């Protein structure tokens, strides 16, 4: 489609397609696993926990997409909004985001989750080793993914028109049948959700990785909006807000629905959301329950893998312009297949510490970019000082979470900080850093970004 340089309103039908596509890209492996366990384990605290979960897994990602639409031409060339924290730190952060949301973590995770939750139960009686089954599945899974990614200009259209509506229909079927046919089990919250349930829910939202994904999916969605005529930052922000609201409403409804599903299985002793959802599907739909559950899982994981690999390949193409698109995609698929075959437990083991480190920096950048939109001047020192403080403290918290006693020497320092007991020691020092940086920027008052 030729790019339109004039101002025009994008038809709402196109906004819906792009919004559905964005929802499907966001809604992947973690989005199925985490909300149901929130409902099952949070008991009487389910409401504040769910609100906290929605804050970091819906509101923050939608705001992040709006921020992605504000980037200038020069920022787009340097890797996006994250370049505002400094060229080298921004490049490192962007690379880490694309690697972790791509071939080194999120992409192999969705493939492995798709296998464990959809296919493994159906082929349990097949006379092959578990490793051989997983390997064959990942080959087929990534072959389908590559089919979509090889035509990046059509990804949003295909996902938004076909895959996303199908996913929503099957999810709605599962949630509605479960909610209206099974009683709420209630019960007391588990230890994880007993104290500070709102904050605990917000931290649980880290595991969906959706706020990080805004730095990735922004590449794909902004390009789609530009092709439809949104060529200025103001136009892009306006249209991205509409797209984000469509995706956000879908995400919120699905998360709330899955949380309700979890409350119907409270106290049943499930180890993870995969086991719980499989049991619910069987109870609600009988012998076809596993098939319905498998379809939901495959669609959710496939759409996310397509979005992540499309955006990542576009990004790598920018920093390695001499390497063909197919080669860049092939390397990512090879690495993803290799890591996926390590198994789900090994992949999930690294998620907590990794998100504890990266998420605070992402939150800081998104919040400052939104704040900057309201100012008549540009922020510079504010980004750099706040990002440095957030990165340092979140690294300490992630290290303590991952290595325990090896990082015990920092305990006296971290424990002095407000909110350290709920793994948010970075918040108050970062706010102070923002105030200090803002003082410098207010004195200099550089022109706004174009």
Automatic annotation (TrEMBL):
Membrane topology note: Multi-pass membrane protein
Domain of life: Bacteria
Localization in the cell: Cell membrane
Predominant place of localization: membrane
Keywords: Amino-acid transport, Cell membrane, Membrane, Transmembrane, Transmembrane helix, Transport
Record-annotated membrane-spanning stretches: 12-34, 46-69, 90-108, 128-150, 162-182, 202-222, 243-263, 283-311, 323-344, 350-371, 383-403, 423-442
Similarity section: Belongs to the branched chain amino acid transporter family.
NCBIfam families recorded: livcs (TIGR00796)
Protein name: LIVCS family branched-chain amino acid:cation transporter
Species of origin: Arcanobacterium hippocoleae
Lineage: Bacteria, Bacillati, Actinomycetota, Actinomycetes, Actinomycetales
